[in-house]
Write a structure and sequence with these properties.
Order of helices and strands: HHHHHHHHHHH
Largest sheet: none
Number of strands: 0
Number of helices: 11
Structural class: mainly alpha
Distance between the termini: 66 Å
Number of domains: 1
Radius of gyration: 22 Å
Helix content: over 70%
Length: about 280
């Protein structure tokens, strides 16, 4: 009896196909969080992203309500939103710059994977992380500091918070790309987080800042998103704060595009110099 062999052609996924891009986006993003985020271990995560923001929120709420006529809830909301910046800025900086320090950058530069999917996938886990940290801080404010949110506009406040976390991640990605050529990228991340505290209305309203500081605050992410969260918390609807949310998203997209352009430029520079390191 003669056997009949049927040859089935192998199905190959082209490196730039939609399926491969989705796989790179999803799995690459999750792996970057587990492998490149130095704070993922509970021994570092809990003190840095749970305990630290808790004491920051309590400190500024106590100091601000004592030194000004504003309620503790005002400062609690500002610092609860700012807690997401710590997770987003530092997280995205590590997710990109650690490719160099952990020795995986040459593999990234050599792979034919879709660069946009590779880059965008880094946002997803840190976006979720920033939201989680900020929501925890809001919980602390609700339980201990009298923060109250209008139930009918909670969804609007959540949308504004999401836009704020995204824009913070975007500037963190830019800092990460810059850090590929720096010896210490976390120094710049520290400056950014401190700049948010100083310029973006976390504890001091932007309207009370000097004119030159207001110009800087309007160019930074976080400023308009925080304002939208505060207004939504007091009952403002999407019609009132929608413009602020869109502006926050636009600023975030601008920083994300700039970060991707810089990453691509550094990659092309490395190929032009015939090296698999970014120099």
């Amino acid at each position: 009896m003669t056997g009949v062999s049927i040859s089935v052609p192998a199905v190959r996924i082209r490196p730039r196909s939609a399926r491969a891009a989705w796989r790179t986006f999803w799995h690459g993003g999750l792996l970057s969080y587990g492998m490149l985020f130095n704070w993922a271990r509970p021994s570092i995560y809990i003190p840095t992203l749970i305990v630290g923001p808790t004491f920051q929120l309590l400190f500024f709420a106590a100091l601000g309500s004592y030194a000004t006529h504003r309620s503790a809830a005002y400062f609690a909301i500002g610092n609860a939103v700012q807690a997401s910046a710590i997770a987003g800025v530092f997280g995205m900086t590590m997710a990109i710059s650690n490719e160099r320090w952990f020795g995986t950058l040459p593999a990234i530069l050599a792979t034919p994977a879709n660069r946009l999917a590779l880059f965008a996938g880094r946002f997803l886990p840190f976006l979720a992380n920033g939201l989680m940290v900020s929501l925890y801080a809001f919980g602390v404010g609700i339980v201990f500091l009298g923060v109250r949110l209008e139930l009918r506009t909670v969804g609007v406040a959540a949308l504004a918070l999401l836009a704020t976390v995204f824009s913070c991640n975007a500037i963190g990605a830019l800092q990460g790309a810059i850090s590929l050529r720096l010896r210490d990228g976390l120094f710049g991340a520290n400056l950014l987080v401190m700049a948010f505290l100083l310029f973006c209305g976390v504890n001091i309203p932007v309207a009370e800042l000097p004119g030159w500081m207001q110009v800087i605050s309007n160019l930074l992410p976080f400023t308009h998103g925080l304002q939208a969260v505060r207004e939504a918390a007091t009952g403002a609807g999407l019609a009132q704060v929608g413009g602020l949310i869109l502006l926050e998203v636009a600023i975030g997209v601008g920083y994300a595009v700039l970060a991707f352009w810089l990453f691509s430029y550094l990659e092309h520079s490395s190929r032009r110099n015939a090296t698999l390191e970014v120099r």
